[in-house]
Amino acid sequence: MSELQMQGRVALVSGAASGMGEAVARRFLAMGASVVGFSLEKECGIDHKNFRYISGDITAYAACVDAVSRTVTEFGKLDSLVNCAGIVHEGGLETTDPMVFERVLRINTCGTFYICKAAIPYLKKQKSTIVNISSDMSIKPLADRIAYNPSKAAVNMLSECIALEYAPMVRCNAILPGIIDTPMIQKRLAAAAQPKQLQKEYQGLYALQRIGTTEDIVDSVVFLSTAQSDWITGICLPVCGGPAV
């Protein structure tokens, strides 16, 4: 794969302040793209001449419109959208507060819809791509994820609908990661009564007997955002180490 395979392309990455979003932004920059990061956090640790950062709330449609508009104003166009913003919540039907349920859907589902809707007028002007980060739990749910699982299942269907509606100019796909070694997971392990046992349980969920790395996901994002996948749209790609056997 050419290191400059994305030379001249402009990408907007939500959730770019940390975790998968930050890793995607850094890889795109290394491949020659100009990148705008969009996250709720006030600051982002990426320092690159072709990177701009916008702090904003993905659950506010006006903020999404502003982020897209500023991207196009700064770099002249928009070729790739990658949506990594999202939250995880653990809780079952009886233990999850209705307001929490709505918040999870507002961030994971509505936020993805808002940024896609804001970006599509610019994306459809030329051959372009959308990659939405979903979850393997959207197709193989774990217990006590009563809000998270359906919020990501909706992202899958949203991605398929966008792919159908905007082909052939816009290719839209979803990636379904398993548990990934991000700051969010590290925080959860640190707070556990038995961190090593919890990590072993996580690893046991997958046939490859490990949790994923951000680079595992970034490789798939790059594939679906470049010409290598020109005949692929509307798929929901599990990147999760295979089901445990």
From TrEMBL:
Keywords tagged on the record: Oxidoreductase
GO terms of biological process kind: bile acid metabolic process
SUPFAM superfamilies for this protein: NAD(P)-binding Rossmann-fold domains
Gene3D superfamilies (UniProt xref): NAD(P)-binding Rossmann-like Domain
GO molecular function, one term: oxidoreductase activity
Name of the protein this chain belongs to: Uncharacterized protein
The keyword Lipoprotein is annotated on this UniProt entry: no
Family affiliation: Belongs to the short-chain dehydrogenases/reductases (SDR) family.
